Amino acid sequence: MSGLTRRRFISVMLSASGALVVGLRHAEAAALPNVPMDLLGEPLTSLGAFVRIERNNRVVIGARGCEIGQGVMTSLPMLIAEELDADWSRVRVEQLPYGYELGPDGPTNRYGPQGAGGSTSITDGWKDLRQAGAVARWLLVEAAAQHWQLPHERLDTEAGHVVHPDGTRLPYAELVERAAGILPPAEPVPLKKPDQFRVIGKPARTVDARAIVTGRATFGIDSYLGGALVAVMMRCPHLDGSVESVDDADTRKVQGVREVFVIDGPVPGSSFDTNLAAGVAVVADNTWAALKGRNALKVSWKPGPWAEESSARLEAQAAEALKGDGVVVRSDGDMAAARKTAKRTLEARYQVPFLAHATMEPPHALIKLEPDRALFIGALQNPDGASRVIADLTGLPREKIEIRMTRAGGGFGRRLENDYVAEAVMIAKKAGKPIKLFWTRDDDLAHDFYRPYGLHQLSATVDRRNQITGFAHLCAATSLNYRIARKKDRPPGAGCLEADDFPAGLVPNLDKRFFSLESGLPRGPWRAPLHTFHAFSVQSFIDELAIETKQDAVELRLKLLGEARELDYAGHGGPKFDTGRLAAVLTRCAEAIEWKRKRTDGRGVGIACHFTFGGYAAHAFEVSVEGRDLRIHRAICVVDVGRVVNPLGVDAMMVGGTIDGISTALNLAITLKDGQVQQSSFGDYPVGRMAQMPNEVEVIVLPSEREPSGAGEMGIPSVAPALANAIYAATTVRVRKLPILPELNRRL
Amino acid sequence: MPQANAKVDKEAAVPAAAPAPIELTINGETFRHTGAPDMPLLWYLRDVLRLTGSKFGCGVGQCGACTVHVGGKAQRSCLLPMSALSGQAVTTIEGLASGDDLHAVQQAWIEEDVPQCGYCQAGQIMATVDLLKRKAQPSDADIGQLTNLCRCGTYPRIRKAVKRAAQLLAEAKAAEAKAADPKARANDGKSSEATS
Ligand code: FES
Ligand code: FES
Question: Which of A262, A559, B2, B68 is the most buried (most CB within 10 A)?
């Protein structure tokens, strides 16, 4: 039997301050000498966060996730508070640091999964964090059972108290000491039934809202350390270029500038596991001195291997690539035969641009290196990766690297990469001082891991009865499989095309192929990565098919989805895709926007739906175009994300996802010329402002008893196609290239 | 946490041959800046005073994350050199509440649960306080004139919060007027408390 030598069990201790600390920890069974190995039972499924109960009966819950605005600092502790039966209004939440530990069997994380990517925080926490709360509750009840000399089963709990059958209530704090002496249960504790929930499913506001609105919340950029110098980099603007010469005479004259030195970039073609670009670091006493010093630099650059690259060339490359055979991503039936027998074959091409993440808080890193240890403080999405990068560059063992996560001013995938952490370490090593690395907005826009560029060619075969008999999706793109270390583990169209996405399994003949494009621009995951990337083409094309075949666009989608059933889905968010759940959000969305009502006032309505990472979403917009102004009169977002942990949080994610989707679809593109990114500010990368946005996003969350799916990314992929479809309905201009506004203006 | 001593030496940025000191008040306290006169207020607040509520988002006046009040008016502190601030009164997000009593705009922001990542929100709040001084009951179009960026897309909730704040301020004002008017107080029977 495996796991005999090593058990996961619950650790309980009384802290110096008299607080009960309960966690689910990894440790050697031998550490509990009184417990025979066999009684420890099966290992619990996962590790958990700490619960601390203070003498004043305040419950402190550790939040393990990376808070990037998705609300995990609120929603994950809710899961623990539910099973603990804590009084949510009196819970205090504390951010936990990165929990790397080196056990006898290798590295583990004492808090379980801590990264923020793929909308998995809630699904993970649903499995293990509730158990952490349940065990803490069990111990407290057991303590009360001993105190009252009653069987455990006769006691109940409510809002931070154990309740005697006669109604007497004992605050948890009074049971702390006794509970700390009790051995935790050997088996996982049974969890509540949904009808017993008091916290899960109830709206909870952001726990640290007060700190945020008073300016006291600490983001990465707000972290300072005694003795730390501020560093800024002037990075090579040429993709994979290098530093030719540096004249730093004027820089060194700037009051407060301490050091200027070159930082090498990664070798062209090698994987991006350290920093992103070569450049010159200016190290100074404060940010302003560093910026002034950087302004005074005179650097000449060597352009590198991509000097000729431009967006125009990439577009030509994409069109050319589609003439080839590509790599088959999924193939059902015989699409070629379907083309031959079809009454009609319809075809259209759609283009999506590179995108930058443009997190409101640009990348930032605070690092202190000592001979035998390191401390990093900052905003992360992937603390595990940060720990590895620091270990690689310093040679320190990872257990000697302390990582404290702060609140992050946005993530959207940008902080899944730790290039800025690496850069800070490289600078700190050279400077021999703790370093606070600061990136400006132009740094951020010109040096990112961009959402891929792609050209989608879609075609469909239609028979005499207007049935869709075949569907082909050819995608030429710069995939994520670019200069990453574990390339061979990934499918060729990584980040661009998913084999089982709609309408796979819903048409008899399917041909999905990927055509890889060459580009020197680094790529990475961008909120709902491949879904924002391809849903625009698929859901726009379905609209075009409906119009061409004179069918209702909602009914055509429902017809394709067919009766409710589960289809296999191999990608993230699977293993199943439920056609009925997608049909349900679409139907509800159509009702909400009054899809059937004819508009006569120049307004048009568009709709789209998509399955993302286990969640189902539909969007509908009512728009008009007056002169050159696009006005969004109504915006509706309907989702099914399984059971909702925090309704206010899910609503926030859907409002935010919809607004992000509108802003991006209307305005944003990163373009290349002469091997350089052309955008450098919010002037030429115009993230949408209030005036451009609908006054309201009407969010409808379908009630569901299913396991929660997370909510951070489902609210965006169907936005761009629903908008483009609405614009067509209002103007009969079909926008097939993002961003929408420049294209619409060109065509109007 | 690495939170700095909020009050570093008030004359911290003092180089040897310092230019003429610049005196200004920040959140009611007087400070003397003897460092680089071209240093933008944003960096003085953040790096020198460790008042980090005002954020950097662009450094060129496009995003509003750095919004503070100078002489009661919203200004983007990344664009304001210290040399232009001699004798001025600056209020930052940290100075908006009076003690534990939040400003109505802050209160509305919590009640509408506006923040997502929260990074832009100090600037949004400072811009809103200014807007509500000019337009006590702002229309949708007035609110649309807020140009602060929010990358997380909190605009619809900001809209609701602005309206709620306007309401809270109007109620507070009415209560204050009532409290000041002895006749109204007599009619009321119980004294109404003004929240400011
Ligand atoms: S940082 Fe001042 S406006 Fe953006
Ligand atoms: S809340 Fe994140 S930028 Fe506004």
Answer: B68
